[in-house]
Design goal:
This protein has one domain. Helices cover about 80% and strands about 0% of the residues. The protein contains five helices and no strands. The protein is elongated. The two termini are about 30 Å apart. One of its GO terms (cellular component) is plasma membrane. Its main location: membrane. It is found in: Cell membrane.
């Protein structure tokens, strides 16, 4: 099955963002209440959706020039920021029972996880060597 996201580090980070969002939401459900769990889920999804848009734009990049790469990165980051602002506004505008601490806390955590894409290896030879030594 073909994926819209072909950059391995970004795909891995998106999976981590989703996992963290689900774990926090499930943990808050019995500890606090349904509104807090839903708020945490929405906070994580705002970050996840904007990160996915970023990843899709970066994955579609075909050029090999430094100029084209920088332009694609800036375009992807601009879309991510605009989408984040719109989604944050929508949640604050339309969800009356929002637990701001759960929402913003999960949002910030998933944004930090997105920045960890720099530390994920995309080198296939390193990955295969690692698998042989396991």
């Amino acid at each position: 099955m073909a994926s819209w996201i072909t950059v391995k580090p970004l795909l891995i980070v998106l999976r981590w963002q989703l996992l963290i969002t689900i774990v926090i939401a499930i943990a808050l459900l019995p500890l606090v209440n349904l509104q807090s769990a839903l708020s945490a889920f929405l906070g994580g999804m705002v970050s996840l959706i904007s990160s996915a848009a970023f990843a899709i734009i970066v994955s579609r990049h075909k050029g090999f020039t430094a100029d084209g790469t920088v332009r694609t990165a800036l375009r992807a980051e601009a879309v991510k920021i605009i989408l984040t602002i719109i989604l944050l506004w929508l949640v604050f505008k339309f969800y009356d029972n929002l637990n701001a601490v759960a929402f913003i806390g999960t949002f910030i955590l998933t944004v930090i996880v997105h920045s960890m894409a720099l530390f994920v290896s995309d080198n296939k030879t390193t990955d295969s060597k690692y698998k042989k030594h396991k």
